[in-house]
Specification:
Layout (H helix, E strand, L loop, with lengths): L16 H4 L2 H22 L9 H8 L5 H36 L11 H16 L4 H23 L8 H25 L1 H11 L8 H18 L3 H7 L3 H6 L4 H23 L5 H13 L3 H25 L7 H24 L1
Helix pairs in contact: 2-14, 3-4, 4-9, 4-12, 4-13, 4-14, 5-6, 5-7, 5-8, 5-12, 6-7, 6-12, 7-8, 9-12, 13-14, 13-15, 14-15
Main location: membrane
Organism: Rhodococcus gannanensis
Keywords: Cell membrane, Membrane, Transmembrane, Transmembrane helix, Transport
């Protein structure tokens, strides 16, 4: 049976600019945002600490220059910028999927306790097994994220109503709090583990290099591409579980597949950089305002806008102070006012 992929908003009057523009205008915005994403990525190769000119950075990209310059540009700026792009892709896609699965426009990937589960597993790996390095952290984070998402899904899907969005949200918040609390307590009683992961806790790109890129690029890109398969099903879920089932959508399997993809995306991003807040919340909202709620546009564009937000935040983090700020601090500084505005806007809509 075919699945209705039509924009659910077509049944009511348009309420955002994105719902009032045509496909051609949306395509134009898409091209503009792609250009912005590529431009910011290249700008990331030339901006940062150190007294290096644009010419020095350009030559270093092709292996020309002093060894110190080559080290800074090719082994610092380039990989950290590419890592910002990858994490932006992961968090943007995860945020769109999460909001679609829960039908909650204020949902964030961390709402299922995925980030907290990844953090908890990394702490346990460091304390109990002495794990260090991106590869070990990545494996631990993926296991922890998967177990956390599985626990939330199993507990949240019990009962007559099954995996109802509100039950999953409440279960995820509770599980996330438990995992975070235990993980934080373990770092407090084990100073060695605290020293090992304290730079990771704040969410930073500083010191990240090709090792992190080589570990996370495959799962992030694979999960982002796989998420496109969910597009028609997410549009169907927006109509409600009963109507989605009437359209032939296997609601339980779609939610399970979505949770697996969110687990992979958030687990990889969290292992690489640490907890990055608000990006998964902000990006889908910005895209929804520009393009409307149709996931045929929403999900692919989140994959483009996510890197724009992450790379721009990293550029601000590099130049904001003489000593670089953690990028997680910048995204939190930007995201907190956005969250307040979104809550106020949502309250106005509900009223």
């Amino acid at each position: 049976m075919s699945v209705d992929t039509a924009d659910p908003s077509a049944r009511r009057a348009p309420s955002t600019p994105g719902e009032r523009i045509g496909a051609l205008s949306r395509l134009g915005l898409l091209l503009v945002l792609l250009v912005v994403a590529v431009g910011l990525t290249f700008l990331g190769f030339f901006v940062g600490s150190g007294d290096y000119t644009v010419t020095d950075a350009w030559n270093a990209l092709f292996g020309i220059g002093e060894p110190t310059t080559l080290e800074v540009i090719r082994n610092n700026r380039v990989p950290r910028t590419l890592l910002a792009v990858l994490v932006g892709v992961a968090l943007g896609a995860a945020g769109a999927i999460m909001q679609g699965l829960t039908r909650n426009p204020l949902a964030d990937p961390g709402i299922l306790g995925v980030n907290a589960g990844a953090y908890f597993a990394m702490v346990v790996a460091a304390v109990a097994f002495g794990v260090s390095g991106t590869g070990g952290y990545m494996a631990a984070a993926m296991i922890g994220a998967f177990l956390a998402a599985t626990l939330v899904y199993v507990v949240g899907s019990r009962g007559i109503s099954g995996a109802a969005p509100e039950k999953l949200v409440l279960t995820g918040v509770a599980a996330g709090s438990i995992f975070s609390g235990i993980g934080f307590g373990l770092t407090m009683i084990n100073p060695k583990s605290f020293d090992m992961i304290r730079s990771w806790q704040v969410g930073t790109l500083d010191g990240r290099g090709w090792a992190e890129v080589s570990v996370v690029w495959t799962p992030i890109l694979a999960a982002a591409l796989a998420s496109m398969i969910l597009i028609p099903y997410l549009n169907g879920l927006a109509l409600g579980d009963d109507r989605a089932q009437a359209l032939g959508i296997p609601v339980r399997r779609v939610r399970l597949a979505g949770f697996v993809l969110v687990t992979v995306l958030c687990g990889a991003a969290t292992a690489a950089l640490g907890p990055i807040t608000f990006v998964g919340l902000m990006v889908p909202h910005v895209v929804r305002i520009l393009f409307g709620p149709d996931n045929r546009w929403l999900l692919p564009m989140c994959v483009v806008v996510g890197p724009v937000v992450m790379v721009a935040s990293d550029l601000v983090a590099r130049v904001a102070t003489p000593s670089e700020l953690p990028v997680g601090m910048v995204t939190a500084f930007i995201g907190a006012p956005v969250l307040i505005a979104l809550v106020r806007r949502q309250r106005g809509v509900d009223e």
